[in-house]
Specification:
Structural class: alpha/beta
Oligomer: single chain
CATH superfamily: Alpha/Beta hydrolase fold, catalytic domain
CATH architecture: 3-Layer(aba) Sandwich
Radius of gyration: 19 Å
Number of domains: 1
Length: 313
C-alpha cells in the first residue's frame, strides 16, 4: 500500500475544507466525543452481562443451531467498553445474545502482550458457550489486536469473522503524537505493521471486513484503514463523512456490521448473490452484504468493495 506522507496533507486538507459534508462530519464527531466522554467513567468498572445472558454458576451458555456465535468487542486506544452501547444494542437486536467486551490499557502492555490476553478471553468464552468460533469487532487499535491474535497466536481456527472500524492497518501518522511502545507500533512501517503484512497468509480462513472513512483524521492517511493484502481477501466499506469515534456510534454502521455477521451465520435472505455475479465468482461462494444504500464494485476481479454507509445516521 502506498503511504502518503505529510507533504501531501495540505492538498488533502484543502480539498476536504471545500466540502460542506466535511463540516457536518466534524460536528458529528464532536458530538460523538462528548457522548463517549460522558459515558467513559462507567467503563472503568467491570462489564456486567445483560440480564438475559446471566447464568447460574456452572450453567453453560450452549450454542444451539438457532444461536449465533459469540461476539467480542475490542475498543481502541485510550477508550474502554463504555463506547460500545450502539453496537451492542444492534447485535442483541440482530440475534447475537452473547456479546462481551475486551478491556485493556495501551500504556501498560504493547500489542503482542495485549493480544495474548485477548486469546485467553476468546478461549474462555468458547469453553463457556460451547461455540467453536467467535466473531471479533475491533475499533482502531482493537482491530490490530484482533489481527495479531489471528495471525500470530494461531487464532484463525477460533475466529469466523473479524470486523475492523477505523483501524490503522498500514499505520497512522497520528501515532507520532502519542507516547509509549504501543503508539510506536501504530506508526507507518513499524515492525508490527510489517509483521502483519508478512503473515497475512495465516488468516485466509477468516472473513475480514474493514470500515474506513474519508474524514477519519486519527487515521492518516485514511486509506490505511482499508485491508488491501490479497491473502485476506477483505471487504472494505467506506463510511463516508464519519469521524473516528463516530464510526462506533453510527446506527447505520452498526446495522451493516450485524448484516455482515448474519451472512457469516448463514441467515437466509441477507445476501443476493444473483445481483453480484463477478463478486460471487471472486469470493468462491462467500456472500457479501453491501451497506444500506451503498454502491458495490468488483475490485480488479479479486475482492468486492462496498462503498457507502452514506451520511450520519
Amino acid at each position: 500500500m502506498e503511504i502518503v506522507g505529510p507533504e501531501r496533507w495540505p492538498a488533502t486538507v484543502a480539498k476536504a475544507l471545500g466540502r460542506r459534508e466535511t463540516y457536518f462530519g466534524a460536528g458529528r464527531e464532536v458530538t460523538s466525543l462528548l457522548q463517549c466522554a460522558g459515558r467513559y467513567p462507567f467503563g472503568l468498572r467491570a462489564e456486567r452481562p445483560r440480564r438475559a445472558e446471566r447464568r447460574w454458576p456452572g450453567e453453560a451458555e450452549t450454542q444451539g443451531p438457532d444461536r449465533h456465535s459469540p461476539v467480542i468487542l475490542i475498543h481502541g486506544y485510550g477508550h474502554n467498553h463504555s463506547g460500545w452501547w450502539v453496537m451492542k444494542k444492534h447485535l442483541h437486536d440482530g440475534g447475537f445474545p452473547v456479546v462481551e467486551s475486551f478491556d485493556y490499557s495501551p500504556l501498560n502492555e504493547d500489542i503482542p502482550a495485549t493480544a495474548r490476553r485477548l486469546a485467553a478471553q476468546v478461549e474462555a468464552l468458547r469453553r463457556r458457550t460451547g461455540s467453536a468460533q467467535v466473531h471479533l469487532i475491533g475499533h482502531s487499535l482493537g482491530g490490530l489486536l484482533a489481527r495479531w491474535y489471528v495471525q500470530e497466536l494461531d487464532g484463525a481456527a477460533a475466529v469466523d469473522t473479524v470486523v475492523t472500524l477505523g483501524t490503522p492497518h498500514e499505520g497512522t501518522f497520528a501515532a507520532y503524537a502519542a507516547p509509549g511502545r504501543t503508539a510506536a507500533q501504530l506508526r507507518p512501517n513499524s515492525w508490527i505493521v510489517e509483521r502483519l503484512n508478512e503473515t497475512a497468509r495465516r488468516a485466509r480462513s477468516v472473513r475480514w471486513i474493514a470500515f474506513y472513512s474519508n474524514v477519519d483524521y486519527m487515521i492518516q492517511p485514511s486509506r490505511s484503514a482499508r485491508i488491501t493484502h490479497p491473502d485476506l481477501d477483505a471487504v472494505n466499506i467506506l463510511a463516508k463523512d464519519l469521524g473516528h469515534v463516530s464510526l462506533i456510534l453510527s446506527p447505520r454502521v452498526a446495522r451493516t456490521v450485524v448484516a455482515q455477521l448474519q451472512v457469516a451465520e448463514g441467515v437466509e435472505g441477507i445476501a443476493r448473490l444473483a445481483d453480484l455475479p463477478r463478486a460471487a465468482a471472486a469470493h468462491e461462494g462467500r456472500p457479501v452484504v453491501p451497506a444500506a444504500g451503498a454502491a458495490t464494485e468488483a475490485d480488479g476481479g479479486r475482492r468486492l468493495r462496498a462503498v457507502g454507509v452514506p451520511g450520519a445516521h
